[in-house]
Amino acid sequence: MITVILTKDVEGCGRAGDICEVADGFARNSLLRNKVAVVATPQQIKRYEAEKKRREQEKKERKEKTQRIVSLLDGKTITMRAKHDNRTLFAAIDGDAIAQELGSLIDETVPVDIVVIENPIKKLGDYDVELRLDDDVSAKVRVSVTGA
Does domain 68-147 have CATH number 2.40.160.50? Predict the structure, then answer.
């Protein structure tokens, strides 16, 4: 048996950053060859633990920021003006445009990946848009699209 640190998720073995004991042949022929694991030396273990701690800290900071954004934006209505022809917009409004507008509303950068919109908005009207930050944190924002 050999101890390895996984660099990527491996089905049946563990997730990235996990330290596992696997058979020598499996480690040499599959994990190490495909670069999804490294041999767990004391230096490697120390490096991966430090990196894991850093990733957890970044995740915690991101979650705090996103929760602050949600508390500021939940239930708000934003109005976006767009040129149209017979209520059909010339340029669709996508998640990027909504994130920029929300960011200007609270004077903070809103990540585009939290804006959940199935299809770009192509007509005038009011639309409910979900801001999903994590599986457990989300907010609703109303987007009102009016003519320019």
Answer: no
